[in-house]
Write a structure and sequence with these properties.
This protein is an alpha/beta fold. The protein contains 9 helices and 7 strands; from the N terminus they run H-H-H-E-E-H-E-H-E-E-H-E-H-E-H-H.
Length: 278
């Protein structure tokens, strides 16, 4: 099936996920009991915080070439995001860069032949105590993040969680695969299995499963996306011993890190190939 503007608009008009998301926008969710900030907007408005000191935002959007008919595509295919990067959920910034096609150490295109994807991340920059900067994904209202996701067919959101939050045994090295895009989830599960990485279908708690249409991963053009929750021990095993810090992670990645990244990139290529565009 060819996916063009007319068929996409028709699909969006009838998509249950999008109608739910539209309804949810009219009734913003209440602040969770364990949250310091009800939204990114509330966090940015806090005069006690300084951007570049307490937190940072990084993103890259790639030009859509309107000058070349052969190169023109009607939509951005995939955006990769890390809403809790830096010191909040350690390792997710580095994974976001690498999955988007950039080496986290120097942002060189990796692999050099691409492909590269748009990315956005919010990072905790404090030496410690970054947890209060966590804004749950259903409350993420950063205007750049919202805009990038809304203009992309696919959104992949990278997160970190503890084994207990994932409902797994202590010390588990695993990734929970969630989000509303069932095809994307299937491809991710298959590629993780090929890579020998333990993957579990996310279920239960709404934020871990990424099943709310308000979740930033599901705010794509199609009203659905994918979310990966990597356990603390899996992320720790991706970096050299003693180097799992914000300052050192980017230059001390281990083979497991790249196996994970390659599995995600392959799954992303598969889901994009299933969405041909005129």
């Amino acid at each position: 099936m060819n996916l063009n503007r007319r068929t996409l608009i028709t699909a969006l008009a009838t998509a249950p996920a999008l109608s739910l998301a539209t309804s949810a926008l009219k009734n913003s969710p209440a602040q969770a009991a364990d949250e310091t900030y009800a939204s990114n907007t509330a966090l940015y408005a806090d005069s006690t915080l300084t951007e570049g000191v307490d937190y940072g935002r990084r993103s890259r959007r790639h030009m859509i070439d309107d000058l070349s008919p052969s190169a023109r595509t009607p939509f951005v295919r995939t955006t990769v995001i890390a809403p809790h990067g830096g010191g909040i959920e350690g390792g997710t910034s580095e994974l976001c860069f690498a999955v988007a096609g950039y080496h986290p150490a120097d942002l060189a295109p990796t692999p050099a032949a691409g492909p590269i994807h748009d990315f956005w991340m919010f990072e905790g920059l404090r030496p410690s105590n970054n947890s209060p900067l966590h804004v749950t994904s259903t409350h993420c209202d950063d205007p750049v993040a919202r805009s990038m996701c809304a203009g992309s067919l696919n959104v992949l959101s990278l997160h970190g969680c503890s084994a207990s939050q994932a409902g797994l045994e202590a010390g588990a090295q695993a990734v929970l695969v969630g989000g509303l895009n069932a095809t994307f989830r299937q491809y991710l599960m298959e590629e993780f299995a090929k890579a020998g990485i333990r993957a579990v279908t996310a279920s239960g708690e709404e934020e871990i499963a990424g099943i709310s249409p308000e979740n930033i991963c599901n705010r794509s053009l199609l009203g659905m996306g994918a979310q990966l929750e990597t356990t603390t021990d899996l992320r720790a095993a991706m970096f050299a011993a003693g180097k799992n810090t914000r300052a050192d992670r980017a230059t001390n990645t281990l083979p497991l890190f790249w196996s994970f990244v390659n599995a995600v990139r392959t799954a992303t290529e598969r889901v994009e190939a299933a969405q041909p565009m005129l």
